[in-house]
Amino acid sequence: MAHTIKLKKYSNVIEEYVANGAITPGHLVALGSAGTVAVHAVKGGPVFPMFALEDELQGNGIDTAYTTATPVQVWIPGRGDVVNAWLTGATVAAGDKLMSNGDGTLCKYASALAAATLLTYRSTTHGINFTARVPGSAGNSIVVTVTQGATLAVTVTGTTVAVVCNITGSETFADIIGIIQTSAAASALVICEAVGTPSTVAVALTAGNGALSGGVDMGPLAIVAEAMAATVPSGAVVRVRARIA
């Protein structure tokens, strides 16, 4: 295993910033509005390639992390440079494109938009699948709540869809789907899909709140690099040789 972050360099642009959080050499970092750097935190988001280097000035290696408020040596590689980065998620083959995983590591590039979803309020195999109307990471801010009340109703406040129904009564999952579909504000946020036969299943369970998740953007500058060799994370976070795109 290489003991440096710069595996191949055609340029040597290095800057120093203050760490806004823990950063390990090889992490993809982003410059914040306060002039500090933190791990790049938006999965699949736009990227200006910047990677934390080992702190050679202090005699530290690639496994010694920077702590909050300490100076970070940051490499700004150019196209064709090769970085000893971190990889998580799916196995990659040589030549696979890589994007930010949203936590300082890289992951296999996903070219398609993904909509946030939530499968909840179900009894065995019956219930509702909620999907964000608009694909992308913005759907992850949508919350669906169900609370006890005498009269079936739905209200929307910001990105929260609040349903009131008689949980211990005769109202069904299909009733919830119907009330959301008749609300223009709620339908603008979520699509409801019946799972099983919800029209025959009463909503006889504890009220709960659920945040949609899994929304991913496909924006410009999402591709950071390409893998130089097959790498298998196997559920861990591992090093990957990555050539800047």
Topology:
Layout (H helix, E strand, L loop, with lengths): L5 E3 L5 E5 L10 E3 L5 E3 L11 E2 L18 E5 L6 E6 L9 E4 L5 E3 L8 E7 L2 E7 L10 E6 L4 E5 L2 E6 L7 H9 L2 H4 L2 E6 L13 E3 L11 E5 L10 E7 L1
In short:
With about 240 residues, the protein is mainly beta. The chain is about 5% helix and about 35% strand. It contains two helices and 18 strands.
Polypeptide structure, described:
The protein has 245 residues and is mainly beta. It folds into two domains: 6-111 and 218-244, Virus Head Decoration Protein, Chain: A (Beta Barrel), CATH 2.40.300; 117-211, no CATH class. Helix content is 5%, strand content 35%. The protein has two helices and 18 strands. It has helices at 173-181, 184-187; strands at residues 6-8, 14-18, 29-31, 37-39, 51-52, 71-75, 82-87, 97-100, 106-108, 117-123, 126-132, 143-148, 153-157, 160-165, 190-195, 209-211, 223-227, 238-244. The strands form five sheets. It has a six-stranded antiparallel β-sheet, with no helix packed on it. A hairpin with a 5-residue loop joins strand 8 (97-100) and strand 9. The longest helix has 9 residues, at 173-181. The protein is elongated. The two termini are 23 Å apart. The model has no long low-confidence stretch (mean pLDDT 88).
